[in-house]
Amino acid sequence: MVLQTLRKGASGWIAKIFLVVLTLSFVVWGIADVFRGMGASAVASVGGTEISAQVFRQQYLDQLQRISRQAGRAITPEQARAFGLDRQVLNQMIADATLDAEAARLSLAISDAQIAREIADNPNFRAPGAKAFDPGYFQQILRANGLTEQRFVASEKQRQVRDQLLQSLGAGVSVPQVLLEAVNRFEGETRTASYIRVTPAAAGTLPAPTEDALRAYFDAHKLAFRAPEYRKISVLALTPAALSAGITVTDEDAKAEYDRTIARFGKPETREVQQIVFTSAADAAAAEEKIKAGATFADIAGARGLTAKDTDLGLVAKSAILDPKIAEAAFSLADGAVSAPVEGRFGTALVHVTKIVPGAFQPFELVKPQIVAELQLDKAKRIILDMHDKVEDERASGATLQETAQKLGLKLASFDVDRSGRDPAGASVEVPGGADVISGAFAAQPGVETDTVQLPQGGGFVWYETAAITPARDRTFEEAKEAVTARYTEAETEKAVEAKAKELMDKAKAGTPLAQVSAEADIPLQIAEGLHRGRAEGPFSAESVTSVFDVKEGGFGIALGTPEPDRIVFQVTKVEIPQQMPPDTSRVTQELSRQLENDVLVQYLAAIQKELGVKINERLFAQAVGSSPAN
Predict the structure, then answer these.
(1) Is 359 exposed, middle or buried (CB count within 10 Å of its CB: 0-12, 13-18, 19+)?
(2) Which residue ranges does UniProt annotate as crossing the membrane (predicted)?
């Protein structure tokens, strides 16, 4: 995760293909067949290359935290194993090791000079406000992530060599025309359906649940109403916002910033400006004398054969006039006045002002709080890495988070949450570091030091520790009665809607026209035209449209409605399949090409692994992900 944050998009299209390869790889050649007994320290090996259990576990936890962050809630290790995340991560590492072995056999390499250029060009290694690579800032970022320059460079070399190898395999795969035509027919097919939308109202009013029914439902679903495990988490968040509160900004600094950026606090004064540029100072002086004698600016312009297009600069702000001397002269004149000769960039000029539109700005006192806050935040961003090092020094000396916070003037917050980030009252809690901190706290015991969490986009750092654990427990019926009632009502409503939908569909299947079924049920008959696979339309979700395409023309079906628990009773009344290719097939061609490239890469990895041999230590694998090994 750290390296991906530092690279910020270093990998391109080939990396996306590789991710698909890793996802499909278990399906293609399966990992169950390669479990073997191994040594005590390696979770897997590819040929002579071993993958240590410690490194695998770290990558597995990193991926678990990343997915939790994307989901907006903590994913438990049990859920992750159910999704197959443990096997996917291991297989990714096996694929990496396979590519490394093949790259070494082919003598592929990346030079130090190329890596150095890419690091120097990476904008993420520039200090805030800087336009060039900052070696000191680069080292600070590496230290903050627990990396050395040698480790980071080695990792980048390894990644780029793999990309070289993969790119050489996947490029230039062509799509057969027959496949393109088949996909066009499949994707271009449209359907029309007549349908009845069955809602809870159409299903009728449900009787109020009895106490016995609720208790029976509670007894049958006790696990759903358990009070989850809670953990009290102490959190020290070092963010620009947290640091800015302690930063002092003087009135002088705020006023200077106001004067420097005043344009953003209103509209500057604008003027309609004209100018005549002379080739010599003598000609400009002679024109000035004529104006003093009674001639107008327009007279001088006309005598020189100049039109308004030649002399007008338009209604402009001072900053919009490129020549500073002309700008200064124009904005020092009274309305209608003509300047003395001005030595500008392109010659000697006379400047004429024909209109003045005063500026309007918010007063300094009104915007002062905003300016102070901005200056505080800007300074906090510049000192945050230094403060990070101070916190790490305190931790290294053995200080607790509480002691560190007190010594450095930082705030230590406490949160009592379950794995999904909710407090005992059921309210969602905003924990600094989000899913990374919550999942990490649930993986650690009280008193055990945890890894620092780096917030994305330079948002700061979070240190945390598990302060206390409240075990999960069964709730009593009285405690859970409100939730039981809600769940029971939802379940019974869904059953009633499903039963009503089935009743209506059975009538239609028995020969009653759907329009008559609709009229008898007092539910309007509606028509959905031009339905496409995978596209939501009206009450049909993208998933429920699949049900329409699973039925033949004239057939009936039931689909989930939007919102649930609605059901849709439908009849497919028309099927249209395109017979000609569309004029533009580039999107489909590109997608098919990517899929074919994926197939090539999957087969390539499978062949190499078969040649090298893959072994996995089942016992260590299970221990690393916190499960019990299979017997």
Answers:
(1) middle
(2) 12-32
CA distances in angstroms from 233 to 283, 363, 412, 434, 467, listed in the order given: 81, 45, 10, 12, 5
Q: Which two tokens stand for residue 60?
A: 């597995």
Tell me, what's the pLDDT at 465? 94
Tell me what pLDDT residue 483 has.
93
- The pLDDT score that the predictor gives to residue 172 is 63
Strand partners, 414: 234
Poorest-confidence range of 158-172, 374-388, 401-415, 611-625? Answer: 158-172
CB 191 within 8 A of CB 549: yes
Peptide bond into 446 cis (omega under 30): no
Whether residue 331 contacts residue 317, with contact meaning beta carbons closer than 8 Å, is answered with no
Helix (H) or strand (E) holding 610: helix 586-612
Distance in angstroms (rounded) separating the CA atoms of residues 308 and 74:
69
| Angle, helix 514-521 to helix 477-509, in steps of 10 degrees | 140
Residue with tokens 């000697």: 348
The predicted model gives 43-59 an average pLDDT of 86
* Positive or negative: CA dihedral 380, 381, 385, 391: positive
Q: Where are the alpha helices (DSSP H) in 397-460?
A: 401-408, 434-443
Looking only at the bridges linking them, the beta strands covering 567-576 and 35-36 are: unpaired
- Identity (one letter) of the amino acid at 608? I
- Spatial neighbors of 578 by CB under 8 A, at least 6 apart, are 184, 185, 188, 189
As a whole number of angstroms, the distance between CA 503 and CA 107 comes to 69
For residue 313 the two structure tokens come to 């600069």
> Residue 442: which of 473, 464, 463 has the closest Cα?
464
Structure token digits, residue 397: 């000396």
Query: Over 60: is that where the pLDDT of 78 sits?
Result: yes
Q: How far apart are CA 608 and CA 298, in angstroms?
A: 85
Tell me the residue ranges of DSSP E strands in 439-507: 453-455, 460-470
Q: Write down the pLDDT at residue 234.
A: 95
